[in-house]
Design brief:
single chain; about 260 residues; mainly alpha; 13 helices
Length: about 260
């Protein structure tokens, strides 16, 4: 049953969902929106679920990036991507519950599944510095387009950073930066277009606490994960994402 207002029991369960999602994010640098959205939509509408995760995603990704090294260099180098990401996230979010969502989820799931299977049996292609600005604008637009409609970041960001072959710590840093900028765009979009109300703001802010606690715990676990194991976990995570997106593309049709 889909709920537009959470009962006390569902609020407690939702807090647990955000704790688990935060823990996964702390471990591999992403996954909070995807995991929380996947579970929340079992008993809330997609619109409500997407609204609830904005503030926890915004703050945890700010912390993730803030605690990383070479912050200003990353902002400077990826500024074309960040601008494109912000704009595409904002404007595509205005159509977040159009019929495009099912088609996009299915298409994205299939693409990521092909990508994971290709990586399993072949060597990943590498994106170098040639034509870096156009490539950044393109990927920024793609990340923003997908996230604005579905509030899912991991497939597109994970794919881009794997193609660029970035190291684990830099992967974590850039993921935090990209999702923070995109979540800021979502916050503006939802706020300016009256998608937030007092109840949703209070709930979203409250769920930040379990999400942050899970995130901090996950960070402590991450230091024990080697580079090789990190990317193995990441590929498994992307595989799960692809199956989830394909499945959700059919579920959303009936919501």
């Amino acid at each position: 049953m889909i709920e537009e207002h959470l009962s006390g029991n569902l609020i407690v369960f939702s807090a647990f969902v955000f704790f688990v999602a935060g823990f996964v994010k702390g471990c591999i640098g992403m996954g909070l929106p995807l995991i929380s959205l996947s579970l929340l939509t079992l008993y809330t509408s997609p619109r409500m679920a997407m609204t609830l995760i904005i503030i926890p995603a915004l703050v945890t990704n700010f912390l993730q990036f803030y605690r990383s090294e070479n912050k200003y260099e990353s902002i400077k180098r990826y500024s074309p991507l960040l601008i494109s990401l912000f704009l595409f996230t904002y404007f595509s979010s205005l159509f977040s519950f159009s019929l495009m969502e099912e088609t996009l989820s299915l298409t994205l799931g299939v693409i990521i599944l092909i990508f994971v299977l290709y990586q399993r049996f072949n060597t990943l292609p590498h994106i170098g510095k040639k034509n870096e600005i156009p490539v950044q604008v393109l990927f920024g637009g793609l990340i923003g387009l997908v996230a604005g409609i579905t509030n899912v970041w991991a497939p597109t960001i994970g794919t881009l950073l794997l193609l660029k072959n970035v190291q684990k710590n830099h992967f974590i840093s850039l993921t935090g930066l990209f999702i923070f900028v995109g979540s800021t765009a979502l916050l503006f979009s939802y706020g300016l277009n009256n998608k937030f109300n007092n109840e949703l703001v209070a709930l979203s802010t409250g769920f930040l606490i379990p999400a942050a606690l899970g995130f901090i715990l996950g960070e402590k676990v991450r230091v024990y994960i080697s580079e090789k194991i990190f990317y193995q976990i990441l590929m498994v995570f992307l595989f799960i994402i692809s199956i989830n997106l394909i499945f959700k593309s059919f579920i959303f049709i009936n919501l």
